[in-house]
Amino acid sequence: MEKVYDYVIVGGGTAGAVLAARLSENSEVSVALLEAGAGEGPAIMSDGNPEAAVGLWGSSVDWNYTTTPQSGTENTVHTWPRGRVLGGSSSINGMTHLRGHASSFDAWEKQGAIGWNYQEMLPFLMRSEGARGGDPRFRGQTGPMTIEEPPAATPLAQDLHDAAVDAGHPRCEDGNDPQAEGVFWAERNVAAGRRQSAADAYLFPVLSRPNLTVVTDAQVRRLVIDNGRCGGAEYVQNGEPGTVRAEREVVLSAGAVGSPQILLLSGIGPADDLRRLGIPVRAALPGVGANLHDHPLAWISYGVKKSPVPGPSRQAMLFARTSPGGDPDILMSFTAVALEPRWAGAQEGFSILFGLATPTSRGSVRLSSADPAAYPLIDPAYLTESEDVARMVAALRMARDIARADSLSAWRDEETLPGREAVTDEECGAYIRRTAGTYFHPVGTCRIGTDDEAVVDAALRVHGVDGLSVADASVMPSVVSANTNAAVLGIAERAAHLIAHPRRTLR
Ligand SMILES: Cc1cc2nc3c(=O)[nH]c(=O)nc-3n(C[C@H](O)[C@H](O)[C@H](O)COP(=O)(O)OP(=O)(O)OC[C@H]3O[C@@H](n4cnc5c(N)ncnc54)[C@H](O)[C@@H]3O)c2cc1C
Questions:
Q1: Does any ligand 1 atom lie closer than 6 A to the CB of residue 294?
Q2: What is the spatial distance between Cα 111 and Cα 117, in angstroms, rounded to a whole number?
Q3: Where are the beta strands (DSSP E) in 227-321?
Q4: Residue 34 phi/psi, 5° resolution?
Q5: How many CB atoms lie within 10 A of CB 368?
Q6: Mutate which of 478, 485, 489, 494 for ligand 1 pocket (most atoms within 8 A of beta carbon)
Q7: Which of ligand 1's atoms lies nearest the C-alpha of 11?
Q8: Reported confidence tier of residue 14, pLDDT bands at 50, 70, 90
Q9: Which of 7, 95, 380, 471 would bridge 188 by S-S if both were Cys, CB 3.0 to 4.6 A apart?
């Protein structure tokens, strides 16, 4: 039997959990949340140790996507973890809570997302945060997403932090300061030693609300669209088809891969591509699935002369810029193990990871088939712009300067990666192309804007279709200069405000 709700939210990840919780605060409206994955995952999903997240990649709660062969990284097919469970990718992520420099939010408005800049986003970023003790001018103190004081630093973690200062980087009190630059201690989404996914923070505490229905193991196949209006969604649960109807609105929060995939399957996207697959065109929107990008990530690794103290530690991170007049465009993190390329393992030692925070390379998510069960073609176009490689080379050199600083002299042994093979810019670039991969931060495939390639307007409504919005990482015109979860929480808080507000103004 067809069920009817006021709002149907598709995808119970970071954004979907926020929307379900916020919209159902109004007991006058009914809300349904459909999630393709399960309601819960393996026990390590509640581990407070960020490294435990690696054990979730490739597990039953991961979609286990792969990319198309990437010409910029020696035709590598990259594994691409994305959460498939309540909490979505926040259930399998590294728990770093970092918003990004103000300039990376202001860049959205410069690209046509009117009203989407740092100042406008700030109240919503703050609304999500429970960061006790932060500067109340820009930190939220009472929001659902708990940010616990990280553990003390081990001696190696402290020396990694201090090496960045030796190398000339300023100390930064709070990495979530809008003008953050230099080295700071990372914050994590942890409460009482346990991981806080968006589901833990927002959804699970309100599951008993009578006006909220959460349907798990329900994969949405396509949207129901009649006469230019979206009236619901078709899904499959345990092999059985079902339909839900939305009286007011369907909100897509299926992430940077899932949201464009569902739009395309529903006939909303580039008309020629849809016709080629035999999908009837409901709205010709050439930008659906375009503009996919992610932070490319690589690292350098060193052996150590003495064994580091094992155990939990806070972790230093760093914002830096490759050009003196530019905005911060490099994000580093320092880890007290020597990682092998592309997470293949770890040895005793340390690594300095560097990601390009403002990549210019752009790829796409496209359908491989009209079959909703088929995985889409994911092309993040890593390092296809030579400018991105040049800035990654500059980041590698910055990382080396830090690794060779005095504070690490008691620890530092041989450079194991890249080592002597990478000296010239060309050699460093070749090393980066051979080893770089995902920082797990894809965005941009349903971007906000008013131009022909934009997918949603500034109030997050899909152009040309009534009763349909998108709210998740896919709406970012360009990726923020940090790990993306905190920014997605802010986007979803703002989306809930916009959707619940009858006049749909931006404030
Ligand atoms: C391995 C990994 C590590 C990361 N580490 C960090 C970190 O340390 N800090 C940080 O800030 N960010 C991190 N991120 C990124 C961050 O978690 C994401 O940016 C954020 O979770 C994205 O939120 P979202 O709502 O856009 O999508 P998601 O959280 O991915 O949610 C999408 C949801 O939609 C569901 N869905 C998809 N298709 C359908 C369908 N057809 N029908 C029904 N449901 C569907 C999915 O199963 C999923 O639950 C990491 C991500 C990963 C994968």
A1: no
A2: 10
A3: 229-237, 240-252, 268-269, 283-284, 290-292, 296-304, 316-320
A4: -105, 125
A5: 13
A6: 485
A7: 34
A8: very high
A9: 95
Ligand 1 pocket member 480 (CB < 6 A): no
CB 263 within 8 A of CB 288: yes
Q: What is the rounded distance in angstroms from the CA atom of residue 460 to the CA atom of residue 231?
A: 17
| 34 Cα nearest atom in ligand 1 | 43
> pLDDT tens, 370-413?
999 999 999 999 999 999 999 999 999 999 999 999 999 999 99
| Tokens found for residue 316 | 């230093």
What are the structural domains of the chain?
A: 1-41+51-149+188-293+363-375+442-507 (3.50.50.60), 151-185+296-356+383-435 (3.30.410.40)
Q: Per residue in 205-239, pLDDT tens?
A: 999 999 999 999 999 999 999 999 999 999 999 99
Over its C-alpha atoms, the chain yields an Rg (Å, rounded) of: 22
Q: What's the pLDDT band for 507 if we cut at 50, 70, 90? A: very low
Pocket test for ligand 1, best of 9, 90, 367, 438 (most atoms within 8 A of CB): 90
State mean pLDDT over 131-145. Answer: 94
Handedness of CA 450, 453, 459, 463 (dihedral sign): positive
Judge if the beta carbon of residue 437 lies within 6 A of ligand 1: no
Axis crossing angle, helix 485-500 with helix 118-128, rounded to the nearest 10: 100
Atom of ligand 1 nearest to the CA of 82: 53
Nearest partner of 199 among 52, 54, 9, 51, judged by Cα: 9
Q: Is 118 helix (H, G, I), strand (E, B) or coil?
A: helix
Whether 169 is a known active-site residue: answer: no
- Joined together, the tokens standing for residue 155 give 């001696």
pLDDT in the model for residue 156: 98
Map residue 297 onto helix, strand or coil.
strand
pLDDT of residue 443 exceeding 50: yes
CA–CA distances in Å: residue 413 to residues 59, 211, 407, 419, 501: 35, 60, 13, 11, 59
- Reported as a pLDDT band with limits 50, 70 and 90, residue 503 is low
Whose Cα sits closest to atom 1 in ligand 1?
93
* Alpha helices in 10-101, H assignment, sequence order: 14-23
Which residue from 62, 54, 96 is spatially nearest to 80, judged by alpha carbons? 62
The owner of tokens 């155990």 is 311
- Retrieve residue 11's tokens: 């995808």
